[in-house]
Here is the input.
Amino acid sequence: MLNPKQSARYHDQGFLVLPGFRDAAARQALRERAVAIAADFVAAGPASVFTTRDQARTADTAFLDSAEGIHCFFEEEAFDERGALVRPQVDAINKIGHALHDLDPVFDRFSRGADMAALAADLGLRAPQAWQSMVIWKPPGIGGEVGWHQDAAFLLTEPASVVAFWFALEDADRNNGCLWVEPGGHRGPLRQRFVRRGNAVTLETVDATPWPSLGQALPVEVEAGSLVVFDGRLPHYSGPNRSARSRMAYTLHVTDGTTAWSADNWLRRERLPLRGLD
Ligand code: FE2
Here is the structure.
């Protein structure tokens, strides 16, 4: 799947862009499923708002249950002061997660196959385990920023192994909130840990190394269909979407099953078996 130059670039930079990895028909099928899930979604309790700016919080049941389910989370700016949606529900979604790849046949197909298995092997995942999937919606006008973080803070194994597969379902650029990465930053320390104790989760600082400035960061502007793969330790960020275009992406997080899953990760699989990428 990867030539030696691509492999070398991935190890050196911590990320790699593979243009045209998923064709227009596959992207369209996934987008239609995402829209249908969002339109049909009825929250069992109060609507969950997702923001990465909370430093600590008690996780709501919907968030923890989404580890083995499909749940829609809303944008902060989607509600008025009385808590009513200010726009149609499908234009108010922040993300859908976290077991789409195991529970929905369209997402399952998109997430797996010989190409994915070969790519994972080339990236060094000896026994891939697909832990979580998310549609990250970034609706026009109100799509929120996702602050600097490292995905390994949320999906830690010993040794660290998580790889993010980030599929652009639409063109992503600076104006609609593309990814920004710190090239080579995966060799730096893990700065945070998202720790679960019982049903409480906390984002803890484990290393005070500052996040890169935007001057040290690179915008990863990609066309729809591109796959961006990156090391779980790579610092990355994405800005708000203040444009009139949405910036929908789909992410899949995969670890190496020969490593040890950290017992205090928020995400637990108790009912739904983990699967690979075949
Ligand atoms: Fe991330």
